[in-house]
Hints:
seven-stranded mixed β-sheet; alpha/beta; Aspartate Aminotransferase, domain 1
Amino acid sequence: MTQRPTGVDVGRIRTKPPGPKSRELTRRLQEVECREVTFVGPNAPIFLAGGTGANLVDVDDNVYVDLTAAFAVASVGHSDLSVVGAVVRQAETLLHGMGDVYPTTGKVELAEALCDVAPGNRPKRVIFAASGAEAVEAALKTAMVASGKPGVVAFDGAYHGLTYGALALTDGDHFRKPFLAQLGGFVRRAPFPRGDAAGLQRVEEILDGPAGVEVGSVIVEPILGRGGTIPAPDGWLAGLRALCERKGLILILDEIFTGFGRTGRWFACEHAEVVPDLLCVGKGMAGGFPIAACIGSAELMDRWPASTGEAVHTSTFIGNPTGCAAALACIEQIRQLRLVERAAKLGERLAPMLDDVRRASRGRIGDVRGRGLMWGLECVDAAGEPDARFAQQVVAGALERGVIVLTGGLRSNIIQINPPLVISDEQLAFGVRAIREAIT
Length: 440
């Protein structure tokens, strides 16, 4: 890498991506990695060599504005010095601990920080994990232990991870069909609301039907992430909270994507003034280190039995000290830089910019939706139908202009904009301009 970005640079393309070094690395990767994992096409992949702030650099020295935050992980920017410094100091002291036997101070401090920042004033408890999917499965187990009922209501378009428990909740034949014979039958699926506060009738029908007696919990994303950036109406989410209370159900909110400031609040459920029973977090929590958590009310969490020396739910890397150090540093950066407030302000500026893109698209962009720094542009054809091919063309066109953006949605036709919360006004405008040029 001959050039290092400042973190606030706009895109600079030296070699049309993917360049020769990326193509050679692709060839080598195909010889050693399962072909299902990394997509290879005419415009993909590029191989990353570095990153700072809202910039990424590939191995061919192209500089990009990142509108993905690397799957919404780089909340405080790529390789934030505070997070990196915390990781280095902890790694030099003790890289790995023994989290469920001999823990470290960082595990206590991070659990306290998460209980403090999570919505609600009641006492809380934490179960740590190494990934968002593991956090979801910790929530599933907690709900089972607390309610005694295996059934869970999940929603259309949901994405909760791809490990087997989480995959049972995730929607979409692409992910589920090859493994249906190995998935449990404990999930009941209801429609996710599209633009209004109605739509709880189907949930009530499930609960009042024959399967309802086995349902102990409901899990939902306040904004569908990978499912297409679809915000649940505040009134609907509040209604779901009330329904769970009326029926004695545990409400699980998956804020792995939306948490830690992305929507202009610490957690997206705060827009609706909803406090969940269990909250799943990860991604932007640690700025790049793999760590996640399930945070729950003490009343529910204390229904787990006390450990007898062989924990019922644990893992090798639970409460990893280096991950705890990264998360503590990231949370402090979010506070110090006032990134929650920044996301809210940038979201107010971004909304009209994206609406202008929609108007200029001559009907190729249908809906524009989002909150804070989490937005989706719906690509459609002349008949108004989802157009995944056009969405991929936009992604490729933006990449050639020095902007990294990804698609999402069950039909892969949503251009998703989820930049680092530290992105500059100039970078954001540059990124939107590149998308507009790629569309028009």
